[in-house]
Design goal:
This protein is mainly alpha-helical. The chain has four helices and four strands, in the order αααββαββ. The protein has a four-stranded mixed beta sheet with strand order 2-1-4-3. Bound molecules: zinc ion (ZN).
C-alpha cells in the first residue's frame, strides 16, 4: 500500500506494528550483546588463569635456580674443606677439631639443600604439568569461544541492519502524520509510556486496561484519532 494514500488509522496501525518490531529487535540485540560480553569475559578469565600459572611456574624456576646455586657453593666449600683437612697441613689437634666441625656443618647443610632442591624440582614438575593442561584447555576453549563470538557478532550486525531499516520505515510514517498526531505521539514517547499506540478492545484501552467513556469509544469507531483519557495513549479501533 502506498503510504501517502493511507488514512490516519492505517498510518498509526503500521506505526504501532513497526514500534513493536523495533522493540523486539532491540531486545534481541541487547540479549546477544550480553551473551557476547559474557563470552569475552570467560575467554579473558581463561587467559589470565593460564598467565597466572605461567608466572607462578617461572617464579618457582627462578627460586630453584637460587637454591641450586647455594647448593653448588656449599659443595665447593665442602670440597676445599675436605682437601684442607686431609692435606696433612694441619697439625694442631685443636685446629683439626675445628676443621672437622666445620666439615660436618657443611655436610649437614649440603644434605638439607639437596633435599630442598629435590622438593622444589618435584613441585615444578607438577606445576609444569598443570600449566600444560591449562594451556591445552585454553587453546581448545578459545577456538570454541572465538567461533561463538564471531557468530554472535554476525547476528548482532544483522539485527542492527534490520533495526535500521525498520527505523527508516517508521520515520517515513512519522513524516506523513499530521502535525497534531505527531506531536501527541512524541509527547507520549517523551513521557516514557510504552507502547504509544494501542487498540481499544470493547471499550477497554489495551494500554491501561481501563474503560474509556462511550463518547471516546464512538470517536475511535469513527476512525478519529483520539487519546485514552486515562493513560494518554493513542487509540486505534480493533480491526
Ligand atoms: Zn489507556
Amino acid at each position: 500500500m502506498n503510504k501517502a494514500n493511507m488514512n490516519n488509522v492505517e498510518k498509526l496501525s503500521l506505526l504501532r506494528k513497526l514500534d513493536s518490531s523495533i522493540k523486539q529487535v532491540e531486545k534481541k540485540i541487547k540479549r546477544k550483546d550480553q551473551e557476547l560480553k559474557s563470552l569475552q569475559q570467560e575467554l579473558s578469565n581463561l587467559k589470565s588463569q593460564v598467565e597466572h600459572k605461567q608466572k607462578n611456574l617461572e617464579k618457582e624456576k627462578i627460586e630453584l635456580h637460587r637454591w641450586e646455586l647455594e647448593l653448588k657453593e656449599t659443595e665447593e666449600k665442602l670440597k676445599s674443606t675436605r682437601e684442607k683437612l686431609y692435606s696433612g697441613e694441619i697439625t694442631s689437634a685443636k685446629e683439626l677439631t675445628q676443621w672437622e666441625k666445620s666439615m660436618e656443618k657443611l655436610e649437614k647443610q649440603q644434605s638439607e639443600l639437596e633435599e630442598e632442591t629435590l622438593q622444589r624440582m618435584e613441585k615444578i614438575e607438577v606445576l609444569q604439568k598443570e600449566f600444560q593442561k591449562e594451556k591445552k584447555l585454553l587453546s581448545e576453549k578459545s577456538s570454541e569461544i572465538e567461533a561463538a563470538l564471531e557468530k554472535l557478532e554476525k547476528e548482532i550486525a544483522h539485527l542492527r541492519s534490520e533495526e535500521e531499516s525498520l527505523s527508516s520505515e517508521r520515520q517515513k510514517i512519522l513524516d506523513l502524520l499530521p502535525k497534531e498526531i505527531l506531536s501527541s505521539y512524541q509527547e507520549i514517547i517523551s513521557s516514557s509510556v510504552e507502547p504509544v499506540i494501542v487498540e481499544l478492545n470493547q471499550g477497554i484501552c489495551e494500554g491501561c486496561n481501563l474503560q474509556v467513556p462511550t463518547i471516546v469509544a464512538k470517536q475511535v469507531r469513527k476512525k478519529e484519532i483520539v487519546r485514552c483519557p486515562n493513560c494518554g495513549r493513542l487509540l486505534l479501533p480493533k480491526p
